[in-house]
Design a protein that fits this description.
- The structure is a homotetramer of 460-residue chains.
- The first copy, chain A, contains twelve helices and 19 strands.
- The first copy, chain A, is of the alpha/beta class and 460 residues long.
- Chain A folds into two domains: 104 residues, Urease, subunit C, domain 1, CATH 2.30.40.10; 322 residues, Metal-dependent hydrolases (TIM Barrel, Alpha-Beta Barrel).
- In chain A, the strands form three sheets. In chain A, strands 1, 2, 3, 4, 5, 16, 17, 18 and 19 form a nine-stranded mixed sheet that branches.
- In chain A, helix 4 packs across helix 7 and helix 7 packs parallel to helix 8.
- Chain A is globular, with a radius of gyration of 21 Å.
- The two termini of chain A are 35 Å apart.
- The model of chain A has no long low-confidence stretch (mean pLDDT 97).
- Chains in contact: A-B, A-D, B-C, C-D.
- Chains A and B meet through strand 2, strand 3, helix 8, helix 10 and helix 12 of A and strand 2, strand 3, helix 8, helix 10 and helix 12 of B.
- The complex binds zinc ion (8 copies).
- One zinc ion (ZN) binds next to loops of chain C.
């Protein structure tokens, strides 16, 4: 099978140029000023459109058990939504039982993921420390291609590890070239603040915001970075939500720590006022860290533009409003934490970033595709170049669309960006050479996604 | 003319991949997994070698009058040295008479540059303020493709402008999308310190270092960034030499200033002890800002790795030891300021950066080629992609060489990196499709370089 | 003449204690748990009242020519207002003709000051550089007891000096133990911003605020501190108005610079919205630096509490609304810059500081009396201890009063704090042992103030 | 009993003045320019000498069990040493059994302290969390006058509390106006580093230094300050040893946290090279945090001078070399942590601070006496003023002495400052009016010290 994408404006992190792209089988085999159409099985006319490498969302929670329920998207609906939204690879989090061996968990999640319609990798969550964990890390890395793990500094009793566990695991990870994702909030103190608020009858969603203050995110972020420094290990702070935490990343980078940061569309575009709405509307916007005061958005955009923040991930952790979010109607602490975002991250970032003039086209590609690929060892992804998987998004910047839950593939009954008009429409999405999305509709096969065996982190 | 570079490992800022490259005329027209050799006029076998986009040195002073003498390299010897060293484009500084119109100066320097063997652009130095300057800026930008100017905060009476002049010029530049290079040292106070030192009989080269302290570089850097902020203009701090000045760049980036920084190989590899040598040996190492305490090197490498510093430029400002540097044998202030570096910047950065593990291959390309092209509007340079000029360096990472003045093309009688063994040897250099360097020898035509008409700065 | 202050609660920077105070002649000769009243000529019953050392306002502009007019208070009305407000010493600025010798200026201002009802010192403003200036500095310090000078980085053509002049003067000052007051705003750029605003028809007082942005204060502050560092001289930044400038002070202190900062009541209590009022009401609030965004107030209070800011000075620079402020009715740049504050600084600081819980009683004394005395060489002032001049304020914290122009001694037709109710009433003010204020009325003799011959700065 | 100190130069934090001091009973009742000697029982001629308020050392560990041994000084030898060294009040740490009720512990330690020859207070160490702890805090504060507690972030299993415990305790403490001392090192990770070092056969004292890196002090310091901020409680970081930790204090102060810091003479004067000596000589210098790289000393002195550090405490935790320190001859982790310092802190601070020109005389008094009194509620101490306890040090600045273990009162067989010649000799020490030290000899009664019932922290 040969496909040619003709006449598009190819955008990579390094440049912007007009070219034809030849795809043979699953890979890009030629990029040329002119490719003759004769031998092609399929021609995509991209005249006047951008041709981007497919988005890579390294922060998703599909089929993810949390708080006695599970996220609303499984690998089917979730990866369809991803594809339609321009994301051609995800790295999802596993969720082991507490104290469970990492290997069977990994096997189990590889299995779950086989339903995916796009390629999927897995970060191994580690929720406890034992000698076995350290023994399993090299197996994960070598046998399963898992060069990234995740540790939580919050959610005690469920996923949280303490400082010593974090240090010992990171030390081993550092030796193996494994990068550690960290959810950085001081869980112990936040739990206490929540208990206090509830004891005082403060049950509305806005108290979710008040009981997870920025200082407790900044504290944990600084601590994680210090531990990474002591352990001589690379670290990736997920979902940085505020200027105060970001400042800790800057400081660590200045000290020479191999520290990287991610932010998410919700922190770039939404703010704490969304939590403070009548009729439990705020419940839809409960995620952790919580939405912050609006002025933080500038700091985050600036972080992306200057390279202090390397990646935008969706933290897609979707729950339906009816039946799931409403579990916490009378107690904000019972609202499952998380927002849907996988379907919209690409558009949100393009619209509020590129279209609004905050970041360049190259930077957009870097954030949504090239950097995630580099940091998480996806050597066949993240760029439009020879030998790379033909994961490609064709994007018409001259059209626009309105985001709405009604039309989404995400299996949820609301959309956090409902009603926003965004510039640009995705016309084609290719995954390993196959057109799987056409004009907003998923047209690919089911279960066509492949598990991503990844290499270790490289010095960015 | 068709040339194919076969089997090389192509390295861009975004990825690393094996591919063949087809060059037709001056441009890259195809990058493919396999290009048939039939129709090619020339084949370069790059098996086992890196194929880099040609280096871009945006900071050179060829044929540059300074302190009653002129730099030792003209556009002939200088660009030959560049080519041999892997640099396929330079942006040289003009040098107008004080108060002179910018346009004839520009014309004159375009003329001078025609002797170049590689492509050359020009930054317009502005050494005074007048209404005419503001009127000439759009002409420079549009007619001459000069999207960058340079202002000096030192060298009073020769090039220095004051704060108000800087503000008014930058304000206009900002409106026009012109980026301002700034030499940031507090010239007034430094001149006084020099006078004091000389009055106390301190005439050795080391006093060059002592009379230009880091605080005076940091002060001027902070001031320039504040003025850029007030003027709402993009700014590029040339030759950041120390942690204290770099910190000002970090602060400005955090405030959202469109601020970029450059450092130079001499600040990454050499230190102030080089100035403190017997028999006027220190005279060879006199440049401004001066070499700094060694610990600053880590901060600068870290700045490159984290993206706080965007570019490495050579600040190639060569003077012969005999007859030029020695003009200051009895008075350090009479030593012409500057080091040769154009021939070695590529190698130094590769060796001490990539080979020593401080930066990745991608980051190396970003610093030496992609970022300079983006920041200074070289839309046909800085990447290996379709339609780009075929400016390419083929580099064998498995061989090594020793830097020595004896073998250099630079027209100077010493080399600042004399005797250093560096990993990697440049085997071929192509400029717009022509092989101009083969195995260390320049084999191209003279005067083949073209003047670079540049576009304006884009948001990086 | 013997006076006893009985039963008061003495408050110094170091402690709070009940004691009687015996004053013999001009000095405090005994502080005791009980002083017998027999031999006393006068008894002041301070039962239930605080007994503070008299306030010292080191930043006043009495009889000060500015912008073709002169401040509304001369040494008579100004020092009466001071006394009534709890200030028993001032240090006023001189105002030499441009290029004039400092010595006759000093003589002239000593003469002017003789009308004062409280003691007065003089800071020597230096508005130009010449060899004579350096020669006069030791004479000023030794013969005239002037251990402090002032340099302006703004008001070009009137008072501004450039960096080199500042450096040379500060270097000499540093050698002599003279501290340099600096008005830190980048005058060159501000003048240009003003010209631009006016050219665009922006003439209202609010544009006074917009054309002197915080970045231009912060820039100049950082520059002054860097120059002080290079010159190895002590420096005192007057009227720090915003967080951004204050941050420069913190940085300099961390580098070990002998740097001190002052703020003023208007920056602690008022904000930029005062400039933005209809009917030229904003004209009343024009001072430089301008009033700032309200959130800066917290940073300034915090600076006082933590000791980063050492002193509160009034920057008393009063102009009548009618006839003076209104000179700029159609052009904000013609509004004479300055606010009255000498009469209220003590009360404002007590009320919004101590009474509101932002600073302790000891800290209040430190800021308003002890630190100014230490920094400016007033060895007989600033404390209630043996041998000190009996400059004392007896203050009833249980009463309150309303600030209003109607009742003020200041020779202006408005009060910047009009209508504010403040806790505490000054019942007695003693100056060198004489009761000069009783229940809000000045009852002392005219021209009783003495010129303060000061010693040099000591390491605080 | 009436004592007069005649003709001395009284030094307080606020001023320096010549005066006579009358002491009646235990208190200062009069400070006067001249006190007639008639009625006096005792005259101390202080002509030419400084008269300081007695030193207050708020960080001592007398009779303190640690690592299966106990500090070498009990309340007898320790307080004698203190007195001879110019310290007239101490606040010692209690040491409860793990989980023990605070009240009997307090009673027990009040009892122990009765042997003291100077006044003593007690900080309550809290080594666990329970509801009872929170209930006991108000009792401690009210009944026992204990307005300060101490929490450890290191020494797991012995004293360490976790973040949640710290938060809950500090929250209650904050409500009660109790200030929390914090030993800030990340104990968990340090313990692991120690285990690693030992496993690798690294047993020498220098590894004590290497296994407690500055980043782990800085991390814990930042965390403690964040928790204090969240808990809205005042906090006092004990023994700040390095620039990196100090920076966290600066940041917290800027955020408005009620944060205070202490450093100790060993961090100001000694450095990590002392640990790296042959023949287990380094064992003498094992304390926690460990001695640091020498360049940190400047940052700490600067912290004292600028007021960022409020207090110098000795952290007197003495162990004999023979038999105690040598317990760790083959394993640095078995060396009891701590240095003797109570006898020398006053002299070390005067000599290296005042005499060397780093701090002023006033600042010396502030650090060693006034600030500790203010922060820890010693309302009758910390100043020479009416009604204060007559705790006074008469100090001859013109003489000098050599510190040596041979002559010390401390019950240890070495002195950390052995052989240092220090300027100034203490000639008299008075405690509540009694001369207890005369010319270097303790001449007071035993068990004359009183327990200090303290008030709560005031806003400094
Ligand atoms: Zn998370
Ligand atoms: Zn997540
Ligand atoms: Zn330069
Ligand atoms: Zn240059
Ligand atoms: Zn001013
Ligand atoms: Zn003023
Ligand atoms: Zn401790
Ligand atoms: Zn201790």
């Amino acid at each position: 099978m040969k496909t040619i994408i003709k006449n598009g404006i190819v955008v990579t992190s390094g440049s912007i140029f007009k070219a034809d792209i030849l795809i043979e089988g699953e890979s890009i085999t030629s990029i040329s000023s002119h490719i003759t159409q004769e031998s092609a099985d399929k021609i995509i006319n991209a005249e006047g459109q951008y041709v981007f490498p497919g988005g890579i969302d390294v922060h998703t929670h599909l089929e993810w058990p949390l708080m006695d329920t599970e996220t609303a998207d499984d690998f089917v609906s979730g990866t369809k939504a991803a594809a339609v939204g321009g994301i051609t690879s995800i790295i999802n989090f596993t969720k082991p039982e507490i104290g469970a061996s990492l290997i069977p968990t990994q096997e189990e999640w590889i299995e779950k993921g086989k339903k995916s319609v796009i390629d999927y990798g897995l970060h191994a969550i580690i929720n406890h420390y034992s000698d076995r964990v350290l023994e399993e890390l090299p197996i994960l890395a070598e046998t399963y291609g898992v060069g990234s793990i995740k540790l939580f500094m919050a959610y005690k009793g469920e996923m949280m590890v303490n400082d010593l566990e974090m240090y010992k695991i990171m030390k081993k990870a550092g030796e193996l070239g494994i990068i550690t994702n960290v959810h950085a909030e001081n869980g112990d103190i936040i739990d206490e603040m929540i208990a206090q608020a509830l004891a005082e009858g403060k049950t509305d969603p806005i108290y979710h915001g008040y009981t997870r203050p920025t200082i407790m995110e900044a504290e944990a972020t600084g601590r994680a970075l210090a531990i990474a420094e002591a352990a001589n290990a690379p670290i990736y702070i997920v979902h940085v939500s505020c200027a105060e935490a970001l400042e800790k990343v800057v400081e660590a980078k200045k000290r020479g720590v191999q520290a990287f940061a991610e932010t998410c569309p919700q922190y770039l575009v939404l703010d704490i006022s969304y939590l403070d709405q009548p009729n439990f509307e705020g419940g839809k916007y409960v995620c952790s860290p919580p939405l912050r005061e609006k002025w933080n958005q500038d700091a985050l955009w600036n972080g992306l533009q200057t390279g202090i923040i390397s990646v935008a991930g969706s933290d897609h952790c979707p729950f339906r409003y009816e039946g799931q979010k409403t579990m916490g109607k009378d107690d904000f602490s019972k609202i499952p934490n998380g927002l849907p975002g996988l379907e919209d991250i690409f558009s949100i970032l393009y619209h509020f970033g590129v279209h609004k003039g905050r970041i360049s086209l190259n930077k957009f590609v870097e954030i949504i595709s090239t950097n995630p690929a580099k940091l998480f060892g996806l050597t066949k992804k993240g760029d439009i170049s020879i030998g790379k998987d033909a994961d490609i998004v064709v994007f018409d910047p001259n059209r626009s669309r309105v985001i709405t839950a009604e039309c989404q593939y995400q299996n949820v009954d609301y959309n956090a960006y409902e009603g926003m008009k965004v510039q640009g429409v995705i016309t084609n999405v290719l995954s390993r050479g196959e057109v799987i999305v056409k004009d907003g509709q998923f047209i690919g096969d089911l279960a066509r996604g492949k598990y991503l065996h990844r290499s270790r982190v490289q010095n960015q």
